[in-house]
Amino acid sequence: MKLLDRNIILGYIAAFGSAISYGIVTLVAQKIVSDYFPPVVASAFSIIIGMVILGVLFFKDIFKDIQVITLRAFLWAIVAGISGAWGVTFWFIALNNGPIVIVAPISATFPLVSLSLTYVFLKKVERLTFRVVVGSLFVVLGVVIIASINN
Question: By three-state DSSP, how is residue 28 classified?
Fold first, then answer.
């Protein structure tokens, strides 16, 4: 098996792992904001705990990579961190104020934002195909159906 094939397979496995993890954390987060903490506090704890876990897991890599990071890469990392922090915070707020059966599908439409930004900023790196666009539209249609059935 080629290295590229292994990387693609690893990417797919990681994507499914991400889906499972987000599915579990959605239920846990709903419980947290319902019974224990306000959403902003829950968001802060979630981010801090995640940062500590990642720091422990990738401690040696952080110091190795930070020595060669460019300013441009560091700025992109800052943008990613800010976006991720706001995403988590909005998500906890949404779970605190809306039913999980509506919040989860709506938040799962984030690939539409990713695809739109990919089209604008990464035309030379990623290619959007007709299948990807149609599949994304089906995701939105699914969210509309779920939201309309539950209201």
Answer: helix
115 and 42 inside one domain: no
The Cα–Cα gap between 23 and 45 comes to 19
Tokens of 64: 């190795």
Residue pair 104/26 in contact by the 8 Å Cβ criterion: yes
User: Per this entry, what is the length of the chain?
Assistant: 151
In tens, the pLDDT along 34-45 reads 999 999 999 999
* Inside any domain, residue 73: yes
pLDDT over 70 (residue 11)? yes
- pLDDT tens digits, 80-93: 999 999 999 999 99
Same domain membership, residue 146 and residue 87: no
Q: Residue 110: which of 131, 129, 94, 127 has the closest Cα? A: 94
Domain span at 43: 3-98
Please report the pLDDT score of residue 10 as a whole number: 92
Retrieve residue 148's tokens. 């309309």
Q: CB 104: neighbour CB atoms within 10 A?
A: 20
Residues 6+ apart with CB under 8 A from 46: 29, 88, 92
